[in-house]
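User: Hello! I'm new to structural biology and keep hearing that structure can be predicted from sequence alone. Could you demonstrate with Transcriptional regulator? Please show me the input and the output so I can see what each looks like.

Assistant: Of course. The first part below is the input, the amino acid sequence of Transcriptional regulator. The second part is the output, the predicted structure written as tokens.
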Amino acid sequence: MTIRSNLRSIIDQREIPIKKLARDIDYRFESVRMMYHDEMERYPRELLTKLCVYLNVGINELLTLREAE
């Protein structure tokens, strides 16, 4: 099992560019980019909180537990 980020599908549906998202939540672009591309190994609580509030989603929508590929 592995934790996967759904950030890409969420912001692509809403047509929000990664740079705008990072700027709007006042967070490092590189961290947001890594989460968008599902390249993060650890998810900072502050980033998760800001994303959930900004996107009005629950943590279970932002992250999902999936079978390892």
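User: So the tokens describe the shape?

Assistant: Right, they're a compact way of writing down the 3D structure. Reading them back into a model, for example: The chain has a mean pLDDT of 95.
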